[in-house]
Amino acid sequence: MRVPHPGISALAAGLALFGLVAGAQAQDERTLRERVGGGNLLTHLAGEAPLANLYEALHGVGARMGRMNSYGWRTVDRIVTPEDFDAAMLQAYRNDITPIILFEYEGSYQFLEPPQPIGSYDHWYEVGRKHAARFGRGGTWAKENNAGVWGVTVFTAINEPDVQKTIPLDQYRDALAGLADGVHSVNPDFKVVPGGFATCNSHGDPTFRGYGPAIADLLNDGRLDGLDFHTYYHVQWYPIERGRAFSAQTCFDKAKAALGITRDINFYATEFNTARTDGWDDDALISSLFLTAVWDQLGVRKNDRSPATVLAFPWNLADTPRVDGLAYAMAVGENPWKPDVRSKVLKQVLDLAGDMTFVELDGPGSGTMTLEGDGARLIVLQNREGWTDRVVGEPWTVAVPPWATSAELWGWDGLRETQAVDGMTSVTFQLSGNETYMLKYK
Fold first, then answer.
1. N or C end of the chain: which has fewer CB within 10 A?
2. Contact present, 12 and 4 (Cβ < 8 Å)
3. What is the C-alpha to C-alpha distance for residues 413 and 289, in angstroms, rounded to an integer?
C-alpha cells in the first residue's frame, strides 16, 4: 500500500472545492505504470524472438501492460478457440505483463475465399463469454496455472474498422453488443472497448466514418466502457506543435459531441506516436514532441476533469526501422532491444512518475497537471504555444509544498536544474519556449 505525503489529503480536499472531483480519482487509483504498455503480443509468435524483444522493451521502459492480439481466435467455420491464447498468456504471466485482448478482424476478411463475414450477435456473445471465463482475472486459465487473480480485465475487437469502411454498420454494432454482453455475463466489471479508431486523427472525422454513431447506444448504456483512439502526430496531418487543436483531448471531446455521448466515458489509446519524418527528423525535436504527446495521452480528462485515460500504448516500442519503417519504430536495435530516443523519453516519464497517480488535471488553458505518490509530487507544464495560457518562455514560479526539500526541473533530455526549497513558499525556474517540463518535488 502506498503511503501518501502529509498534505496530499488536504490537497485533494482543496481540489474538490474547485470541482476537481477527488472522489472520482478514488475510483481509479492505478499508477501511470499500470496505464502504460505496448503491443502487439501476437499469440502465434508466443515463445519466439519478436515477442522476447517486445517483452524486453516493455521491461526496459518500465511498463506493465501489453495488447495481446490474435488472428486465430476462431476457425474458418467460426468455432471459437480460446486455447489460441494459452501459450501467449503463459509468456505474459511469466514476464509480469498484464494483457488486454484484441480479437483481430478487418473488413477485407469478407472478401477472402471462403469469405469470413463478421458474424452475428450470438457468435460474438460466445466469443466474449468463453474468453472472459478463461482469461479474465481469476478465470479458469489462472486456476490451471496457479496464477491467483491475475488475468485480463479489458477486451477489445475489430481494429480500425474506419480505415477500410467495408463492415456493415449494423453488423459491426451487433458484434460489439454481443461481445460486451458475453464478457459481462462472466463479470460485469470487465471492460469492453471497440478496437481503435483512426480517422478522427487522420481525416478529422469524429464519427469514425459512421462507426461511432453505430455504437453510441452501447457507450451511453455502459456496455462499452469508452473509445480507443489511434493518434499519430504528424508534421502535416496532425501537428502537435500547433496547439491543442491537434491533441488527444480535442478528438475525444469532438467524438463525444458528434456521437451524442451523455455518459462520462473513458479514453483508451492502444496506439500513438510522433512521426519521425521530414521536418520532424531531428532527435531533439522528435524527443521534445514525444514528451508532449505522452502527457497529452495520459492527461485526457472527463467532463468532471477526473482522469479519463485507462491505457496509453505507444506504437511500437519493439520495432526497428527494418520492421516498422523509420517514422514509428521506437527501437534502434533488437535481440537485445536498444531504445530509440522516444523510448528513452517514455522510460524517463515512468522513472519519474510511474508510481504516481493524478490529483489534478488542468483547467482550460493552464497546460498543467499534477501527480503525487511515493513521497513526491510532479507538476507537468505543457509550455507550448496553444497549449497554455501563460506566456511561453517566461519564468515559471510555482508554490512549494511545505514538506518539500528539493525541486528538480526535467525536460525531454533529462534533469535540467535542481534547487533547494526547504522552508520556501515558492520556487522560480527560467524556461525556454515550446517544450514540456516536469517539476518534481521531493
1. N
2. no
3. 12
pLDDT digits (tens, 9 = 90+) for 397-407: 999 999 999 99
Per-residue cell: 302: 472527463
d(Cα 135, Cα 229) in Å, to the nearest integer? 25
pLDDT in tens, 181-210: 999 999 999 999 999 999 999 999 999 999
**Residue 3: pLDDT above 50?**
no
- Give, in order, the Cα–Cα distances in Å from 272 to each of 36, 224, 275, 399, 414: 12, 21, 10, 33, 22
Transcribe 278-319 into DSSP letters. TTS-SHHHHHHHHHHHHHHHHT-B-TTSSB-EEEE--TTTT-
DSSP SS3 for 344: helix
Q: What is the pTM of this model?
A: 0.92
The values of phi and psi at residue 180, to 5°, are -60, -45
Cis peptide, bond prior to residue 188, ω within 30 of zero: no
> CA–CA separation, 49 vs 297, rounded Å?
30
CB contact set of 434 (below 8 Å; sequence gap of 6+): 241, 288, 383, 384, 385, 392, 393
C-alpha cell at 189: 466489471
For the chain, the C-alpha Rg in angstroms (whole number) is 22
Grid cell for residue 384: 507550448
